[in-house]
Write a structure and sequence with these properties.
The chain is α/β, with parallel strands linked by helices. It folds into 2 domains: 138 residues, Response regulator (Rossmann fold, 3-Layer(aba) Sandwich), CATH 3.40.50; 144 residues, Response regulator (Rossmann fold). Helix content is 39%, strand content 18%. It contains 12 helices and 12 strands. A 7-stranded mixed β-sheet has the order 7-6-8-9-10-11-12. β3, α4 and β4 form a beta-alpha-beta unit. α2 crosses α11. The termini are far apart. Keywords: Signal.
Length: 322
């Protein structure tokens, strides 16, 4: 009887011990996110948090994504915030833009950094190559190298084009703008002209001018102005009754003729995946920079431009037809 009591006592003690151990929270692992917007309005932070943090019922490390507000135009802001994050024992730093990543990388030390960059991070000296780095840094880039393919699709969709306008930016005129002009002229025999308005007001005046009617079609590469003036651009193109090719599906949904678009939906999940890989022991310096995994051709088949519809052969191979 005494032996049975002792065995029962051992079982109860073991059960209580397991219960107590399970109630102890897992060690918290800190990840630092550096943003230019306050926490309450930073949608990228919220999306990354959803992709990164496992639900409580799933086993795994107890992750904490700390938000650090930095001001790139304020001296000492980045240094102070990165220093604070590292002092708290942060395991991984996250920067969602090229500018933030460049600033954070100056103060990261040996703490791994995961970034997102729209331009080529090699050209911006964020990383030394797309494969391995000297510092523990890796990330995701949406660097756009599709100018030639877009021009090819535009010519195929609207045979007979001769003169096209390219909306550019003055800051990349010496390099990327000239590259597009060379592709248009030498690759497709087009008369191409690079237009570089500096503001939305200047763009509006340009597209209202008689000069705008001289072009058979328009190409809108990835520029800040094309992004902020999307609605105005689409309205002008409808008024001018001119075809165009763009870089996002949203522009075709809004009424543009066509787009050859990198699928940006992979960026946040890819960043979360990179963070987990680093936490699981991989060396950030040895993880290649992630690039777009899918490219989408979107067209608006019902639109007419000067009585001409998009070539049916292009419509047939489109991924999205509106």
């Amino acid at each position: 009887m005494a032996r049975l009591f002792v065995q029962l006592l051992c079982v109860v003690s073991l059960a209580l011990g397991l219960r107590a151990a399970s109630s102890v929270p897992a060690q918290e692992i800190r990840i630092a996110y550096f943003g230019s917007w306050p926490l309450g309005t930073d949608s990228t932070y919220r999306t990354l948090a959803q992709a990164l943090l496992r639900p409580p019922q799933q086993q795994g490390p107890n992750l904490r994504l700390d938000h650090y507000l930095v001001k790139l135009d304020e001296a000492g802001s980045v240094e102070a915030q990165v220093g604070l994050a590292r002092a708290r024992g942060t395991r991984v730093l996250v920067a969602p833009t090229t500018g933030l990543a460049l600033a954070v990388s100056h103060w990261q030390g040996q703490t791994p950094l995961v970034f997102a960059s729209h331009p080529d991070p090699v050209q911006w000296n964020l990383v030394s190559s797309g494969l391995t780095q000297a510092l523990p840094i890796t990330g995701v880039t949406q660097a756009d190298v599709l100018h030639g393919k877009r021009l090819e699709l535009l010519c195929e969709a609207f045979p007979g084009l001769r003169r096209i306008a390219v909306l550019g930016e003055k800051r990349w005129l010496p390099v990327e703008g000239q590259e597009i002009l060379h592709l248009a002229r030498q690759g497709f025999g087009l008369q191409a002209e690079l237009l570089t308005p500096g503001t939305v007001e200047e763009l509006d005046a340009l597209m209202r001018s008689p000069q705008a009617r001289r072009f058979d079609a328009w190409y809108f590469p990835p520029t800040y102005l094309a992004y902020v003036a999307e609605k105005q651009i689409i309205a002008h193109l409808k008024r001018l009754n001119k075809p165009s090719i763009h870089i996002t599906v949203a522009e075709v949904q809004a009424g543009a003729a066509m787009a050859y678009a990198q699928d940006g939906a992979f960026v946040i999940p890819a960043m979360a995946e990179l963070v987990h890989r680093i936490l699981n022991g991989e060396d950030a310096a040895s993880i290649p920079v992630e690039r777009p995994r899918r490219i989408v051709l979107a067209v608006r088949a019902d639109a007419q431009f000067g009585g001409q519809r998009i070539n049916p052969a292009v419509v047939r191979k489109a991924d999205l037809v509106f």
